[in-house]
Amino acid sequence: MFFDKLGIGLDKPDLNDLQDKLLEAKKKFIDEKLGFKRLPYEYETLKKDLDRVRKLTEQMDTIVVIGIGGSDLGTRAIQRAINGLYYNQKTTEDDRHSKNIYFSGDTTDPEAIAELLDVINLSKTTFFVVSKSGNTVEQASTFAYYRDLIIKKNLKPQDHFIFLTDGVTGTLRELATKEGYEAFEVPSDVGGRFSVLSTVGLIPAYLVGVDVEAMLKGAQDLDEEIKKSKDKMDDILEYVGLKYLYYKGGKNISVMMPYQYGLYEFAKWYQQLWAESIGKKVDLEGNVVHEGQTPVAAVGPVDQHSQLQLYNEGPNDKVLTFIRAEDSRKNIDLPEDYTGAEAFEFLKGHNFHELLNYEQETSAFSLTQNGRPNATLSIPKVDEYHLGQLFYFFEVAVSYFGNLININTFDQPGVELSKNAMYGVLGKKGFDEVKEAFDKYKSS
Amino acid sequence: MFFDKLGIGLDKPDLNDLQDKLLEAKKKFIDEKLGFKRLPYEYETLKKDLDRVRKLTEQMDTIVVIGIGGSDLGTRAIQRAINGLYYNQKTTEDDRHSKNIYFSGDTTDPEAIAELLDVINLSKTTFFVVSKSGNTVEQASTFAYYRDLIIKKNLKPQDHFIFLTDGVTGTLRELATKEGYEAFEVPSDVGGRFSVLSTVGLIPAYLVGVDVEAMLKGAQDLDEEIKKSKDKMDDILEYVGLKYLYYKGGKNISVMMPYQYGLYEFAKWYQQLWAESIGKKVDLEGNVVHEGQTPVAAVGPVDQHSQLQLYNEGPNDKVLTFIRAEDSRKNIDLPEDYTGAEAFEFLKGHNFHELLNYEQETSAFSLTQNGRPNATLSIPKVDEYHLGQLFYFFEVAVSYFGNLININTFDQPGVELSKNAMYGVLGKKGFDEVKEAFDKYKSS
Which one, A80, A172, B161, B430, has least CB within 10 Å? Predict the structure, then answer.
């Protein structure tokens, strides 16, 4: 696997005492029935969906993912890492570029909705509504609105909406059955934040030219390595072990700081994974524990000029994970000739990729000198195979971590209250009590 | 001013004991000579620069800001809030839209540089190099590279680069004088993270149609209100006072969570302001204190589906600041007719702006029910005037906060080590010692 300089910091804890517990967590993970572990092996099943969705969207030039949280963060991470920031504007020829992609449904801000409508052509757009239940207010409202627009344009909504939803139950599945919308199945035993390697992440990714087979292969190879080394310590275990010891030592913040510009959205995906999985009020025995480590998404070198001052000099309350790539898909040399700009001649002979990795190393160096724990995760380069590995790496890591602190890694009971209050405000039936509490709060 | 429901939380601290200290901080702020306090009053001076830069860029269709940290985060925040996410792709007629804008110089990732070159036309592009010194490696290297490309295209670099830099000293100023580049002055007494209302933020903003006069007016009105109420408590003081008490009570994380989609980059600007200003090793007497509160940029409702689980159930270690707008620039009603999608009829009669604010309120409600301190900052709407106020509000707030904890709010000594190590690695003269320490670290 691929960690180096792990857990550097002057107060590097000793893993020996923890080793049994770590190996136990690994064994449990391998033996446990967890839906997301299956996904890397399901390319053959997925392939049928991919062929079908390609045909269904053949006439379209744009897809819009109506998602929020676990139903779009993974897709955003893939899109940004593989296709980059300006993909929808690209002017050069590129085989990858089959359709434009946009994201909606993660806000009900009308200004954002108006902006999107300004740049897409509805009659050439397929909207993917990605929701297990179909009840999420942000997605329900944007779906209802775009659907109404489509109808008012005398287009057929069934030609412009595809659902990614539960195979059996829920509002969207019922609607699909009753009104004849195309629908793909989201695995019912995989939680949103673990669903990036399912239809949720991979159907949209496939439509923008991503090699989803390679993504699954990356995850699969990692999973097989884990199973092969069942009784042995490995990089993920060591990473989790050190992170756990630092966490128990009071480091309540976990910074994810890739240096590849395209991995910023990956860090946002990690933010959800780490926050929702670990942030829990009760442990598995029902004791009130209030566990949680606040994830921060950063990106280098940008945040050297924004956050590093704090990381180096502020309270020693965080662990940092750097991600770096050893190679670049498009390296660029610095100029040869500095005539008329001699002050910059010190850059001669270098290339940009090298600069980027120097910056990562000098940041890690300064943190280490200041006794701040940091780990560097190194991948060969940002491509589908390694991105698949990255996703799976952290899904496994958070499963181990949840096991060490004895909480349910896979639920999210703490968002029910605001969700129910929202239903109450909107007058949905059965939410009177929470509505009353909310009204009391508002008038206080 | 404009805070409401301030400092809600079951353990709301009492500000009475702190009042004298707060009023002292306010008095000190009013009396102190701080460069950034001058900026809201300098529109007349700025106007000359704006007229000049308009003429200089008349033939161009694109500007690229080569900045990093304090030299571009403010500009990004303005651009995103006022012009939105898809500004460069807009197809509809809009008087605002004079030039496209891109950002570079905040990374040396060659993949990001290649992406940018894919979507701009060099011969119609003006690059703004925004750096007081011109020595920042990220900006120096991207400038050198784009300059080389311009020359190789047989274009004149002086027609395509404008410097925003110190008025007297530094690499860029020297280059401007010697080689005849146009240059605008960045005030030498204003630090990067306080510079958004100077030429740094406002020259680029002006070129993309932002009403910069209104921005300054907003800040100015706020500043005058502060001065008028010299001896009185006010919303900023109360906000800072509560934040300070929570911080002293162990809340080492500060979440900035606007609900307007366009304010996400504003939250990133806040991240730098709060991290670099407050994160300090020593106090004003030289005692080692390691102060700092880690800022987290979030945005609602997205992060309800990513971070709220942790905020509600995890450790009670953070204070949250919500930002909401009472009105929208482009409100949209939900559909009237739900035929064929009856399950969504509960949305009828609502509009998107209303939904957005309900979501903010129900989140605040759930946090409050869980005893998590949160404050809601309410602005009438997202426009230039109120954005100017927002920037100034937090610049003042962080100045007060720094005063309360007795640190130097305006320096950033903690980034020197990595910067010097980088110069050492690149073979710049005078950095041998740090290079040696870095080499030792790498081989360890």
Answer: B430
